[in-house]
Amino acid sequence: MYSVIVSVVVVAILQLTEARIGTGSCAKPPTQQNFNLSRYLGQWYGQVEYSAIFNVGVSCSRARYSLKPNGHLRIFNQGYYRLIDQPVSVEGEGYVISESNPATLSVTFFNFLPAAPYLIVETDYDNYSVVYSCKTIGFLKSETAWVLTRSTTGLSEDTLHGVLRRLESYGIESNHFSRITQTDCPL
Ligand SMILES: *[C@@H]1O[C@H](CO)[C@@H](O)[C@H](O)[C@H]1NC(C)=O
Ligand SMILES: CC(=O)N[C@H]1CO[C@H](CO)[C@@H](O)[C@@H]1O
């Protein structure tokens, strides 16, 4: 029971710290055309992330996507918390809300936490993916975004800049991104 409470608290903190809290409305980026969930499955590594107000020193962020028997997406996120010198992992579930919009998922990590939209803005499946998640709570918004890559090396600087410029044009500010360390990962 104690460990359950600890992980719930850690996840709640993760959710708060991994998002930027701001005011105004969420960006409305386009999503990947003809999104194919099967091609999206497998291992991804975070290259950059919309950083939180608090820098809690997460490195080695990675996500593994697989299919559940019910057709929903199983999301397994891992990272390493330098601050507490501990690996942290959290499992969530996502599903496509409407088949007419296959790259828009609803994702939840614990039953008591509200589900958040999860938009796959663009992906080529083999190299990179851009994810945007934003939820408004009254006049506040909680917003986060990642560039995920299939390799720990990540995209080249030029390609990454191209991606961040496109995000900027959708109102997702590139100066809010910070780099995720993917070396010396004790996971
Ligand atoms: C999605 O990708 C899988 C695996 O590459 C492929 O077998 C399937 O035909 C694709 N589905 C569509 C609708 O393109
Ligand atoms: C632009 C780019 O890096 N493309 C690579 C994407 O991944 C495939 C499969 O690993 C490579 O063949 C491409 O060169």
UniProtKB/TrEMBL annotation:
Signal peptide: 1-19
Xref: CDD domains: lipocalin_apoD-like
Any coiled-coil regions, as ranges: none
Stored InterPro entries: Calycin, Invtbrt_color, Lipocalin_ApoD, Lipocln_cytosolic_FA-bd_dom
Compartment annotation: Secreted
Name of one Pfam family that matches: Lipocalin_2
Main location: secreted
Entry keywords, A to Z: Disulfide bond, Glycoprotein, Lipid-binding, Secreted, Signal, Transport
Residue ranges annotated for the Lipocalin/cytosolic fatty-acid binding domain, each copy included: 36-181
A molecular-function term among this protein's GO annotations: pigment binding
One GO biological process term: lipid metabolic process
Protein's UniProt keywords contain Signal: yes
Cellular component GO terms, alphabetical: cytoplasm; extracellular region
Family as reported in the entry's similarity comment: Belongs to the calycin superfamily. Lipocalin family.
Name the record gives this protein: Apolipoprotein D
Phylogenetic lineage: Eukaryota, Metazoa, Spiralia, Lophotrochozoa, Mollusca
